């Protein structure tokens, strides 16, 4: 009995090799841009004295989510500093924000385009399904091929893994805007840009911000995984705890990730609510 074997893996390898050889200049430009953004964020976050940075984060929590959460943020951030993980936490925050900004820059326009084109929606939706269901570790392989080891491939893998929610929810939010509202804006002679920026996006903003929240949470979930290729930050602490069987150190790194995730989650959730 003849066993049929589809050479999918071989095709992928050939494609990756071709892109590595012929698009190296393009990948170098992307690497320089991402590295510049990452270094900028890290320089700002680690350049500001820790107590001032802590105060800024707590102030944001106070203004957005209230007194109780602000007190919890103070306790959590002081705990991170007490565990000597402040620098690693700022590195992780820089990676998450860089990946989030890139995901938003690509995802929101794509989501708007999908909302306006059923054909594009039918093409992109299976790709988003693929991106969300593919094991996160798989993204590390081509990222290392194209960008070597370090923070940049970690950021690229994080963007790919975390972008689908903001694309889906942007498209959903735009599609859910009432046709009556659109017809009313048409009756007043609104142009396409006016309808988009003054009607559709404002009404869809709560849904878009829900996508932002999910993107940030998924970015944080990639922290430990990206550390396997030199992503740095708190992921390195957790990975060191795993590889060297240092349970306490791994727990401290994991606890710092949880604290950072809770703060970012509460703040981003509040963005879609009226104060």
UniProtKB/TrEMBL annotation:
Residues 89-268 form the ABC transmembrane type-1 domain. InterPro entries: MetI-like, MetI-like_sf. The chain crosses the membrane at residues 47-63, 70-87, 93-115, 136-163, 216-239. It is a multi-pass membrane protein. It is found in: Cell membrane; Membrane. One of its GO terms (biological process) is glycine betaine transport. The keyword Oxidoreductase does not apply. One of its GO terms (molecular function) is carnitine transmembrane transporter activity. Belongs to the binding-protein-dependent transport system permease family. This is Glycine betaine/proline transport system permease protein. It comes from Alkalibaculum bacchi. The lineage of its organism: Bacteria, Bacillati, Bacillota, Clostridia, Eubacteriales.
């Amino acid at each position: 009995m003849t066993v049929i074997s589809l050479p999918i893996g071989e095709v992928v390898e050939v494609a990756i090799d071709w892109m590595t050889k012929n698009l190296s200049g393009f990948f170098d430009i992307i690497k320089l841009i991402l590295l510049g953004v990452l270094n900028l964020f890290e320089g700002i976050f680690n350049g500001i004295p820790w107590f001032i940075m802590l105060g800024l984060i707590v102030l944001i929590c106070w203004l957005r989510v209230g007194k109780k959460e602000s007190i919890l943020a103070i306790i959590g951030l002081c705990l991170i500093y007490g565990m000597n993980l402040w620098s690693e936490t700022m590195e992780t925050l820089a990676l998450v924000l860089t990946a989030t900004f890139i995901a938003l820059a690509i995802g929101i326009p794509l989501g708007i385009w999908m909302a306006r084109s059923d054909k594009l929606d039918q093409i992109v939706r299976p790709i988003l399904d693929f991106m969300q269901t593919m094991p996160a570790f798989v993204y590390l392989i081509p990222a290392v091929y194209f960008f070597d080891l370090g923070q940049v491939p970690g950021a690229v893998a994080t963007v790919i893994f975390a972008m689908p929610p903001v694309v889906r929810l942007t498209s959903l939010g735009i599609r859910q805007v009432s046709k009556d509202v659109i017809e009313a804006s048409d009756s007043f002679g609104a142009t396409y840009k006016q309808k988009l920026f003054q009607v559709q996006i404002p009404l869809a903003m709560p849904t878009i911000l829900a996508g932002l929240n999910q993107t940030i949470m998924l970015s944080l979930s990639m922290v430990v995984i990206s550390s396997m290729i030199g992503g740095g930050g708190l992921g390195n602490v957790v990975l060191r705890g795993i590889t060297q069987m240092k349970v306490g150190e791994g727990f401290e790194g994991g606890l710092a990730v949880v604290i950072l995730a809770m703060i970012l989650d509460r703040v981003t959730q509040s963005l879609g609510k009226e104060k």
